[in-house]
User: What shape does this take?
Amino acid sequence: MKQMQKGFTLIELMIVVAIIGILAAVAIPNYQDYVARSKFSAALTETAGGKTGWDAVLLDGLTPAFGTDPSTGGIGVNAAGTHTTLALDTAAGTITGTIQNGPASVQGQTITYTRAADGTWSCTTTVDAKFFAPGVCN
Assistant: This one.
C-alpha cells in the first residue's frame, strides 16, 4: 500500500513565497502613495481652516492672527497643527502650511492659500500633483 503525502513539497512552498513577494512588491509602493495622499488631504484641510476666520477678522477691521478668539484677531487655527506647521503673512495675505510627520514624498512640502484683494482664495503647493485630484490646488 502507498503512503499518502503529508505537507507541502519545497517547490510548492517556494511558489507561494514568490507569489507573496510579487504581491508585496506591488502593494507597498501603492500603500505609501495612499498614505501620502491622505496626509496631503489632512494638511490641506488644516491649512484651509483659517480662511473663513481670516475673512471674518478682516471684516471686523482686525489683523488676522493665530488663535481661536476673534476679538483679538484669532482666525480659528493655531500655528502648530496635527498635520502641519502654519505660518501667516498678513501683508501678503497668505496662510502657509508645512506638512509634518508624513511620508518622505510629502514631508516638509508646503500648501499656501493666498487671498486676493477681491476676497477670493487661491491655493498653490509644492507637493507632487500625483498626490491630489486635479483642480484641488495648483
Summary: The radius of gyration is 24 Å. The chain has a mean pLDDT of 90. The domain at 10-131 is CATH 3.30.700.10 (Glycoprotein, Type 4 Pilin). The chain has one domain: 10-131.
